[in-house]
Write a structure and sequence with these properties.
There is one protein chain. It is built from nine helices and six strands. By secondary structure, the chain is α/β, with parallel strands linked by helices. It folds into two domains: 147 residues, Alpha-Beta Barrel (TIM Barrel), CATH 3.20.20.370; 37 residues. Helix 1 packs parallel to helix 3 and helix 4 runs parallel beside helix 5.
Length: 202
């Protein structure tokens, strides 16, 4: 049995900061970059700390993406809302169409999209289908965020493990963290009962 090796996908949200690390990564690793556009300018300012005008944001992304596109497949990443059902269909459609048009004007023909927080609804599915845009679902590809590279740069122990390909160490760290969360929920009867009875979580 031959397992398919899928490319790494990077949800690229801070390219004005992570550009050098992204460029180094995509030159060495098969990668698909899912990139944000000026549609998410306010998100970039309030959440990611971008400093500058909308025009400056657009110009910066245009310049950086132009170089990254020489080494990696470029696709679309949009943050609509944590609760997309609260947005009108027109708002959602305008965001998606505007992002596609911005990309097209710069030579990026986006055919796939990852939605931020993996949040989209039936209306978004219908919009994407009408535009010929494939929604990439959680788990289809291994993924990281570009800002994860900043943490990796700071984590010397993990970097050493990766350099030596110490998979037992990496798996041990991962399983330990996951086990801690599982035990927390198992032991916390009040929390379990609360979650089980929450109507809005059904």
């Amino acid at each position: 049995m031959v397992l398919e090796v899928k490319p790494l996908t990077v949800h690229t949200e801070m390219a004005w900061i992570t550009y050098p690390m992204l460029l180094d990564l995509i030159r060495k690793v098969s990668t698909i970059l899912f990139v944000i556009t000026p549609v998410n300018y306010e998100y970039a300012v309030s959440v990611l700390g971008f400093r500058g005008s909308l025009e400056e944001f657009s110009d910066k992304l245009t310049e950086i993406y132009g170089t990254l596109a020489k080494y990696a497949e470029m696709q679309l990443h949009i943050h609509l809302s944590l609760f997309p059902e609260l947005l009108s269909r027109d708002v959602k459609e305008n965001m998606i169409v505007s992002a596609l048009e911005w990309g097209s004007e710069r030579g990026f023909r986006f055919s796939k999209v990852v939605f931020g927080w993996w949040k989209y609804d039936k209306a978004v599915e219908d919009i994407c289908n009408s535009l010929g845009l494939k929604i990439v679902k959680r788990g289809e590809y291994p993924h990281i965020h570009d800002y994860d590279l900043l943490y990796l740069k700071e984590n010397q122990v993990l970097r050493r493990a990766l350099k030596t390909r110490s998979m037992p160490f990496i798996l041990f760290r991962f399983l330990t963290e996951q086990a801690a969360w599982i035990l927390f929920f198992i032991k916390n009867k009040q929390l379990k009962d609360y979650i089980a009875k929450c109507a809005y979580m059904e």
